[in-house]
Amino acid sequence: MRIVITGVGALSPLGVGVTALWEGLLAGRHGIRPVTTFDASGYDVQMGGEVPGFEPADTMPPEVAARFGRTTQFAIAASRMAVEDAGLNDPGTWAGAGLCLGTTMGEVQELEAACAGQEGRLRRYPVSQIGAGVAEVLGLSGPNTVIPTACAAGNYSIGHAVDLLRDGRALMMLAGGVDVMAEIQYVGFQRLRSMAPDVPRPFSAGREGMMVSEGAGVLVLEPLDTAIARGARIYAEVLGYGLSCDAHHMTAPHPDGAGAYAAMTAALQDAGLTPEKISYVNAHGTGTPANDRIETLAIKRLLGDHAQRVPVTSIKAMLGHTMGAASALEAVVTALIVHHGIIPPTTNYLGPDPDCDLDYVIDGPRQKGVAVALSNSYAFGGNNASLVVGCPPGR
């Protein structure tokens, strides 16, 4: 069964909605600002990527929003945007759809509030509440799963949704990822000394680290014949996905990129494609010295000589690392790249690193038809997930 992407929704540090995300990326804007969610003045780094202008009441009644934490509010908003973008204007057309969301921290702000003594907040903490909240507000009655595989969770969720559709266990799926800014992960990355002082600089010489951010990305996935029958706009086709867990280290990638290579290889096998068919890579690209070097190594191992002809970019240069939302937002952007034939740049580049010697599109957006794209995500614990997205039929 062929699975296509017919709707996308997004909240990102560039703003509310897919238009703010896409136009911001093409313009080379970054969404990194002084953190306002909590008092960061006592930390070495005070910057982060928060979603500006988000008002829960724009996508749900205030009394409904009041029952949910910010993570669930994000997920509801991005899901509603996705179904509207897919042209599903009648709730009855998506009532039987399923939902699969990825997250790293879940309703972490609710946990922090409970630990600070605020009564009644802990009951909103379990990650299952996120999926339940979206299903309740949108009226979804299909399979409902939340996958907490850290920063690769968005791609894991998209892969699971594809499986459900292929197996005929769902007629339509909403899939993606979500996470919000909270002090606990901010402190954690500060203690790991893995945060950049100002902005992330993926694949650049002198890069110093990643940037903690928040966001949500959701895609509507459905069988090709269903999409054609209802006259849907098709952004792209999900050709395959691959997962791996190298379990090398809790926070560090495998030194040979074994896990990354295995996930990319599995994704191509699932898609029935050879490496030479890849025409663009949306990289995990966190901006840390280790990740960017090892991801480059893994891509070169996969693509061989072809690697020098393939553009590789990281939108984390502008968004920061949105945790469980990262690969979901990257999947949204990859679908838009395939649809529009434009590749956003990798910004904040200071100069070449001998260990990062691929084409990172550093001089602004590039007009380029992308027939087959590979989108990578890697996570703590050695969890790796890659997604292969291509042009829909007829393009």
Automatic annotation (TrEMBL):
Entries under SMART domains matching the protein: PKS_KS
Alphabetical GO biological process terms: fatty acid biosynthetic process
Membrane-traversing stretches: none
Domain of life where this protein originates: Bacteria
All copies of domain Ketosynthase family 3 (KS3), residue ranges: 1-391
Keyword Transferase: yes
A Pfam family per the record: Ketoacyl-synt_C
UniProt keyword list: Transferase
GO molecular function, one term: 3-oxoacyl-[acyl-carrier-protein] synthase activity
PROSITE patterns: KS3_1 (PS00606), KS3_2 (PS52004)
Family statement: Belongs to the thiolase-like superfamily. Beta-ketoacyl-ACP synthases family.
Record protein name field: Beta-ketoacyl-[acyl-carrier-protein] synthase family protein
Organism: Candidatus Tanganyikabacteria bacterium
